[in-house]
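Quick log. Single chain, no ligands specified.
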Amino acid sequence: MTVWFVPRDAAAKSMGADGIASALLARGEEVIRTGSRGMLWLEPLVECASERNGSRVGWSNVTVADVNEDRLDTDHPAYLGEVDLLTYLSRQQRWIYERVGIIDPLDPQDFQHHGGLAGLKAAMAMAPADVLEAVKTSGLRGRGGAGFPAGIKWQTVADQEPQPLRGQPSRATRHKFICVNADEGDSGTFADRMLMEGDPFSLLEGMAIAAYAVGADRGMIYLRSEYPEAWDILCGAIEAARSEGWLGESVLGSNFAFDVEVRLGAGSYVCGEETAMLESLEGRRGMVRAKPPLPAIKGLFGVPTVINNVLTIASVPGILARGAEAYAALGCERSRGTQVFQLAGNIAQGGIVEMAFGVSARELVEDFGGGTLSGRPVKAVQIGGPLGAYIPPDQLDVPMAYEALADAGAMLGHGGLVVFDDSADMAEQARFAMECCAEESCGKCTPCRIGAVRGVEVIDRLRQGDNIETQTLLLRDLCDVMKQGSLCAMGGLTPNPVLSALDHFAEDFR
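-> predicted structure:
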């Protein structure tokens, strides 16, 4: 019997995937809901196979009428052939996303059939110290933007003694936490959401490995409130993992206890910063904490805490399953392994591309992305979210790697690329960056809280032609103060898009 695969990813659902699944079920077909393959310009992408794990053929931009009128055949103009052979997919190096779009995200058996749980089983056959060493050897760095080596952060937590929760007596039960920051607030980024909606067990598996390595007993996922589909899937996956014995008092039948819960954020962009997230999790307003102490020493409720991004933690099962050396063999220089790049903005083929570090921005935008959707020339690409620099076309050959981008005056951030064509006003985009900072600042430090407001005013005077030379110098000076004096990356990085717009697109300010 033919098996149909219809994505339940939020992007696909927004294009009518639920209606297509209902129409297929009404015909008596077997339907499996999966995540998205990451080719968002083709959604809803519907696939079918002669058996559940057989090769799949697909159709793009399917409608309910296509199903009801029985038009899904090889003569349909949207017929794609075998989906795995599409150039966009076959050129990728999928480690983190290897099961996304393939499995039912809430089916534990489907997860295991496609290689899931191999990393946790391998880790628990090792000593915790050896797991830590494997993560260090892999070269894994934080995928949330800072790029800090994950193994060093984990080692710091492992070296601490468990502590009672803040406010509890010293004789109380002692803990360590694994916290995953899933507050994916950067414009043009959606990799965390798609991973949680398409393969949530991989995130839970990675958290369990981290907990085993550092001696943690509790896990917390801080989820962006704008992700209701991810919330439903994560909650369902946690219940299924407990039933399977992957979480709880006896993980995989051992004496290792670890459990996970999900908490919703309240819409604050600054809670993407780790200490602001901790404040929010503890029931307070999300405001940045001064460091030290580091969260690895005194984190959530005052106990040692590992804080990693979704993609960082989801990288770990593959490292343990396939070997740290295999992971370290990918990438370039100090940027090892793969990164999930997200193509958005004015781009013909927006979506997910997982490649080893070192692929160029030009290859991502032109080869995978197909250039601009408008067909006009690329004017700029913003890399690393709304606080990232604008890269002009003649610099797009820069390798997508931490140090290479830093040398080019840019940053990798969460791996998002937002494309602008030659009709874009980059002075307007620079103003948007300052305005965003003014709106989202937690208000704790003066350079961010006041500097962003003054920045908007200076850019407005520049755009009105008010003493351009003086206002330009003032804007650069203000940006320097924000970079040097802000408490966290919110104020410290806001100058990046502003200065890059001034440097590369000065004519837009006149």
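The chain has a mean pLDDT of 94.
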